Fold this sequence. Notes:
The chain is mainly alpha-helical. It is 55% helix and 7% strand. The structure holds zinc ion (ZN).
Amino acid sequence: MKKECSICEEKFDFVYQKGEQFPPYFPFCSSRCKQIDLARWLNEEYQISSPITGEELTTKDEEALADFLPDEVEDDCITDEKKA
Ligand SMILES: [Zn+2]
């Protein structure tokens, strides 16, 4: 069975017999290509998660929090600051 590696696009023979485990690097041609895929995936994760800490989202979070918090809590905070 011929498989094409999605990293290096090299065709490689993939032999699977029932009852046997898949190769540790499956579905790539080698463990090296599997590591490249993993690194790419981790990089994408990092790029997706980093903009969440951006200014726009922080402002929205603060607005949502202000709507959620009752006035009493804000009064308590002011009182605590005066005591301290
Ligand atoms: Zn490969």
